[in-house]
Amino acid sequence: MTVPIKVETLSYTYNPGTPLARTALDDVNLEIGDGEFIGLIGATGSGKSTLIQHFNGLLKPTRGRVLVDGVDIWQKDVRLKDIRTKVGLVFQYPEHQLFEETVFADIAFGPRNMGLGDDEINARVRRALELVGLDFEAVKGRSPFELSGGEMRRVAIAGVLAMEPSVLVLDEPVSGLDPRGRDELLEELARLHRRSECTVILVSHSMEDVARLAKRLVVMHKGKVVADGPVREVFRMTDLLKEVGLGVPQVTEVMHELARRGKDVRTDVLTVEEAKAELLRLLRGEGRVR
Known about the structure:
This protein is an alpha/beta fold. It has a single domain (5-248), classed as 3-Layer(aba) Sandwich (Rossmann fold), CATH 3.40.50. It has twelve helices and ten strands. The strands form two sheets. It has a six-stranded mixed β-sheet, sandwiched between helices. It has a four-stranded antiparallel β-sheet with strand order 2-1-4-5. It is globular.
């Protein structure tokens, strides 16, 4: 597996040398593999947002290195513009960054700044809209501000996808959406990962969301990575997660409670569908596969 992003002994201090100095990252080491879907979790102030802003050079390390495709992004001969094409970052409420008169123009803005020709720009806008589940012909000429909140969010994500990054970083992408918009966008993110070769890093406070989408979890606390592994393995670390101010998905907690009451159930259940199957097995009196 190739490694599009590698972080080595990364530390970052806000306002260094002043009374307001605060260490946000402390000796972080992390490798992001090609094609992975990673959930990045941690309580508020754990360092998640600071970390992802190092991935494409929005912040410069106080100490340590960030490598993209094996290249230290802060070497003198590296153009950060090229790095930001490879690593696309979608902040919270990305629809606030929409500004063009039409959906097409907004999504085309990045590719046009890359110096691409009209045919390639058109193809990229079409592909990006397809990836986020919007019909090109139906929305290309509309004002983005006429769309629903969920659709605006998808258009903003499409604007990043149109630059065809190899890594897509999403910081709380469903924050503020209604339940329907939230579910639709999460499903589109799952489809996007299945249909593209893009590595996805999802920053989220929702244990349910990362359990549903991610294959690997990275847990941060006080600027350090305190756990890193497959989703089921990390969610078995209930004591650690509680210690750092996190929990497990609600259905997982239900299974733990049933187990505490003497029921022979799996405690690594992550989704409603898995919980349903486990409860039906329990009601039928069937033995658990070990």
